Amino acid sequence: MGYSQQLRIAITDGVPKHRIGSLISKQRESNHELDVRLYEMAPTKLHEAIHSREIDLGLALHIPEDIRIESTSLWHDGLCVLLPANHLLARSDEFSLAELGNYPLILPAAKGVNSVHTLIHRLVRQTNKQINVLQHTDSMSLMTTLVASGLGIGFASMAQICGHGHSDVVTKPLTGCSPVITTYMLHHAQEIPTTILPFMKLLEDDMPELNQSIGG
After folding, report:
1. Quick one: which of 59, 77, 79 has its CA closest to 181?
2. Of 9, 120, 130, 211, which is the most buried if we count CB atoms within 10 A?
3. Distances (CA, A) of 3 to 23, 32, 123, 138
4. Nearest-angstrom CA–CA distance, 185 and 8
5. With contact defined as beta carbons under 8 Å apart, do 166 and 126 qualify?
6. Predicted local distance difference test score (pLDDT) of residue 112
7. Through-space distance between the first and last CA atoms of the chain, rounded to whole angstroms
8. By percentage, how much of the chain surpasses pLDDT 90?
9. Nearest to residue 174, comparing CAs of 128, 131, 210?
10. Is the separation of the CB atoms in 172 and 213 below 8 Å?
């Protein structure tokens, strides 16, 4: 099948992929002539790709200091804790970050200055105490498996944990001290292909309630 239009999108680490996939599917249902290409890039590479017109649209967790790139905030996402279902804290509605530091932690591997992973690392270390990091993971599926096994407590963004539910894992939102992670839509400030305008509207109209509790 031939396509008459193309939409090239790049995303950085931490952007909720499941939501992007859902919106791409919705866009293609209304336009069968649209050829969508989706890439994952580091922030610097994404910015360069916008400049060089290699991509039409970028989704990232950081706004570049570049007047050639225009940004729009889309989604605001909180952090959550992943607990084994039989863990003592799984029955609590509230707990402090300091309390979590008393247990073995399973943290995502750091990937860049502005990634969700780095935000979680900073937050955990704000307890000003020695923490017990059992393991770093590169995927949510491995993290949920380790937590379900009772080996430790995990951390993720609400968006990241969507689609990775596990019957032996309880998810609780972090309140009070938790930073808000914002996903931004980026594109060239002067040249916007008309083919991407419908998808941009889909992104702007989509308002997920990511801060609500999704487990427990």
Report:
1. 77
2. 120
3. 19, 8, 46, 35
4. 13
5. no
6. 57
7. 46
8. 22
9. 210
10. yes
The CA distance from 13 to 214, in Å, is 21
The pLDDT value given to residue 38: 92
pTM of the full structure = 0.72
Asked if 33 contacts 3 with a C-beta cutoff of 8 angstroms, the reply is yes
Helices 197-205 & 17-30 angle (0-180, nearest 10): 130
Q: Read off the pLDDT of residues 66-79 as tens digits, 9 standing for 90 and up.
A: 888 999 988 887 78
Cβ-contact 182, 73 below 8 angstroms: yes
User: Residue 139 has which token pair?
Assistant: 């995927």
Show the 3-state SS of the chain: CCCCEEEEEEECCCCCHHHHHHHHHHHHHHCCCEEEEEEECCHHHHHHHHHCCCCCEEEECCCCCCCCEEEEEEEEECEEEEEECCCHHHHCCCCCHHHHCCCCEEEECCCCCCCHHHHHHHHHHCCCCCCCEEEEECCHHHHHHHHHCCCCEEEEEHHHHCCCCCCCEEEEECCCCCCCEEEEEEEECCCCCHHHHHHHHHHHHCCCCCCCCCCC
CB of 170 closer than 8 Å to CB of 108:
no
Rounded distance between C-alpha atoms, residue 160 and residue 108, angstroms:
11
Contact 97, 126 (CB under 8 A): yes
User: Is the pLDDT confidence value at 28 over 60?
Assistant: yes
